[in-house]
Request: fold
Amino acid sequence: MRTSRLEAFSDGVLAIIITIMVLELKVPEGHHFSDLVHTTGVGLLTYLLSFAYVGIYWNNHHHMFHLVRRVSGGVLWANLALLFCLSLFPFTTAWVDESRFAQTPLVVYGLNLLSAAVAYFVLQTVIIRQEGPESPLRQAIGADLKGKLSPVFYLAGILSALTVDRSGRVGAWIALACFVVVAVMWIVPDRRIARVVRQHETPA
Reply:
């Protein structure tokens, strides 16, 4: 099976996820900048972070499937698992926003981020097993340092929210900092896959 249908379906789901998240933003009650900050400020920040994550997954998903020759049943189910995890972003983002970074919603948000990372790793692994150890994707990934560091930061954020200053906000801010660090780490362009894609598209 070709990859075009899987990519089109995934693109549509990610577009809907972003649309749902932006619809969760509250309209300011007044007509001044202070009303925007008071009513929508936290929501804009959480939306920005989640939007960045969805964008990162879309970007990496897009590049990864440039190196996939065919789609098997295992790849389809692994891709659906990733989309399921990402589809929870609007819910967990809205909960963090409405709770003003309370402990439990923040931990659930961190678990959502961690589950999406695990699902993406599983999808990547299934593809490599299908394509073989000498596949272009395997060559492009290399040591995958960022992929290995990301779960560490997610777990650090989750544990900080659970254990550090539980009655205050220190743990929450540490957790948010960990989640932001991962987003920034992945926003920085990773040219590995793009370079391999160019090599395979260039006529011999």
User: Anything to note?
Assistant: The chain has nine helices and no strands.
